[in-house]
Amino acid sequence: MALDKNTFKKAYENKYKDIHGDEIENGNNLQRYEALGSLIRDYVSWLWLDTNKRYNKTGEKQIYYFSMEFLLGRLLGDTLMNLGLIDICKEALAELNIDLRDLEELEEDQGLGNGGLGRLAACFLDSMASLGIAGHGCGIRYKYGFFEQKIIDGKQVELSDNWLRQGNVWERRKIEKSEVVKFGGEVKVENIDGRIVFTQINYEPVLAVPYDTPIVGYENNVANTLRLWSAETVSNEFDYSSFSSGEYLKAIEYKNSVESISQVLYPEDSFYEGKILRLKQQYFFVSAGIQSIIRHYKAHGGNIKFLDEKISIHINDTHPTLAIPELMRILLDEEGLGWEEAWRITTNIVSYTNHTILAEALEKWPIDMFKGLLPRIYMIVEEINERFCSDLWNKYIGQWEKISDMAIIADGQVRMANLAVVGSHSVNGVAKLHTEILKKEEMKNLYYFYPNKFNNKTNGITHRRWLLRSNPGLTNLLCNTIGDSFIKHPTDLINFEKFTYDKGVQEELERIKKKNKERLAEKIYKKNGIIVDTSSIFDVQVKRIHGYKRQTLNCLRIMDLYNKLTNNPNLDIHPRTFIFAGKAAPGYYLAKNIIELINAIADKVNNDPLVNKKIKVVFLENYNVSLAEEIIPAADLSEQISTTTKEASGTSNMKFMMNGAITIATLDGANIEISDEVGNNNIFIFGLTARQVLSYIENGGYSSQDIYNKNESIKNVIDDLINGKYSKDREKFRSIYDHLTIFNDEFYVLKDFDSYVETNKKVDSIFKDMYKWQEICGINIAHSGVFSSDRTIQQYATGIWGPELIYKNL
Ligand code: 26Q
Prior knowledge:
With 810 residues, this protein is α/β, with parallel strands linked by helices. The chain has a domain of 320 residues: 3-Layer(aba) Sandwich (Rossmann fold). It is 48% helix and 15% strand. Strands 1, 4, 7, 8, 11, 12, 13, 14, 18 and 19 form a ten-stranded mixed β-sheet that branches. The chain has a six-stranded parallel β-sheet with strand order 22-21-20-23-24-25, with helices on both faces. A three-stranded antiparallel β-sheet has the order 15-17-16. A hairpin with a 2-residue loop joins strand 16 and strand 17. The site of ligand 26Q has 23 residues, from helix 6.
């Protein structure tokens, strides 16, 4: 955006006066933030209008990314950067004695997601806009986002995330673009002039009100749209005449029950529970989204028969799968198309990404619940199922088991993953191994029936937020060595490889990392009161707390190291700071127990003068996008230690790599691709292979008890869980103890323990040679370009959404 400092400054001053009716000096930083946000949004508005006009004129294909979650984080800094205004803004504010960073920190994180899946959606929006693709998000405007985590006495306590408290300058409420979503009632079937007509009657209408947020591309004059829906009652008027009769309270109750649909994000990310409110949420945003897409398409003269040439709908996991029957419903009941044509259009439009193979995360809705809430949609799903099963019967005569495995409706349930596969033209996994497991294990039968639908799209992250924004020091070094072409072409980072052998560059990398570590150390001191040694190895595991991610493995080896250090305080190890952050689902007892364990270890270790010069343990509370932006650039070692086969991809692994941390990892998810990229010598790999894990799962043969009995170090740390060492209450960590012993260690923690400990010794020996370490970091940075979500989005675009899409910024 072409704007000079003085114009910007003047505009800002005017804006401030406009909205606050006062002088800047008299206000506080929050008011200054509001004025700045509002000014930037004004600038964006023009761009936004322009982009939309252009899309309407060119009639290019519009991509809609449907997701229950968008984990955007803060928007001010990234939007300024993408507009090309960051320097001008910084300087103009400085003249007014305002530090831009102070204002940025006042913005609430937009935390409408649990973790990986929601953050991926946010990275994809950024990449679509930056590549000039007409790609938009569609989701729910939760009044309360992902809960805020407090640690009290070592335990997680959940507080509500009232992120809209101070308002949200980025969104625009578009009441005139509201849609009505219908729940419950019955379906009236009539024969009108020889045509069977289905009408939903006696339903409960809910008004879906869209709030639009602009998604600005990187210096390319594009502003796409994230449309989030909020639930309201259709009529907002209370009937005051019924006030005295008690109806008034009923009306309020009704209003609350309608608004509850978009009240709060479900905080479970890997455990499915069939809650009716969740099903309501799903249909609510999917129905509103599709209605508005079709309304817009038709308003601009589109012919419904060619809808699939002009739009694509991508569903982020199975959560928006109702898009399939909802699109069918509109094409059949409202547009009057026949089944075959509607089905062809629908399957051409919809594509689906699977994000997990954990069986406990699969969405299956009880038929009665489904049918009661969505009677017409259920009829359509039944019809889809019947037609599909009859195809199966023709192909697999008499193979009932196979057919019932593939059916959409079975055992009294509607299986969303099967519906998503049948009703879309593309099914993708999010990393090579994950896609292979989908094809050969999880969805084997569906894959052999539809081999051409399945494909891989390895995840990515936006290097704009995760490198340019979060690590300006490193970005500077990169620009000074290889130029700035990597900003638009992230794979150009490979040009950095040759510099990484240069001692001067290695020293510079070390200096940059040190600075980032100092900044984080300050934060740790401020938040936790712990002083950490910035020349120690910053060994970081930040992600959701979950059994399969194996924070327990990390804990056990710290406990082991602690034992060894107490026995021999002169043990030759490089000092380490173990840093953790992450949230546990509120109802996941084991995960909450793990948080308590981490904090108990921290308490013990940090206060033991015999060891605390060498090791420290830190748990930073309330992990979110903004905290990740501070932690990741300060990491030396990236912990990616999930049980092989369980982590579909992982995306923090890519962020760490791009910021010059070295990875210690199992060969799981995208760790495999990272390892392939950098080569064996530039990553620390340990643990069971996928084949070994799958063989254990299939054939048994694993006994954690055996390992416990035979391995003294393991026996000691396991016993330490219940012998009073980490808590006076010996029962406190009983559930972890039981999980690892009596319940045979579902995630093979004990099995991988030795190889993890040994591999960590290698980490130590390499870290001793600063030059060698930084050389490896440099190689990781140089090879991180393929993990930009720009690459991922190009692959989605050309491979799934339509090869006819042409990109202007490549
Ligand atoms: C489902 C039903 C009911 C309630 C909640 C849910 C639910 C919500 C969120 C289920 C799953 C999620 C989120 C899953 C997720 O984040 N998966 C991660 O996706 C990343 C992006 O592809 C991968 O990198 C991670 O490996 C994967 O765990």
